[in-house]
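Progress report, Aim 2. The chain analyzed during this reporting quarter is listed below.
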Amino acid sequence: MKVCVTAKSGYMNAYLDSHFGRCWYFMIIDIDSMDHEALKNVSSFSFSGAGVQAAQSILNRDVDAVITGFIGKKAFSVLSSKGVDVMIFSSGSVEGAVEAYKANILGKLESPNCPGEHGKLLQIAD
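Predicted structure tokens for the chain:
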């Protein structure tokens, strides 16, 4: 079984990067062997659609669950439509997130917990 943890760097001791679509790295981990792969999130600086692009790249890695802090509605929809569970982890390391997942103490999101639209610029009235 494979999980994806959103991370600030490509190491197991890296801190969780709390927003799925804008995270710096995805750590893909086989929870049985703890073999892992660091995947840079190339869509993290996209003006729009970062969450959907990120979700599609994760689906190509055949993960069963994503562990993150926040996820927008479009990314959540893409992942959940393919049977990928989205689990909430508020802070700590990638390794800590995997251990919490293995101990079955993470909450499963039933809906997105972030409105998205982070890439859009705010317009300020004159």
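Residues 118-126 have pLDDT under 50 and may be disordered. The domain at 2-108 is CATH 3.30.420.130 (Nucleotidyltransferase; domain 5). These observations will guide the mutagenesis work planned for the next reporting period.
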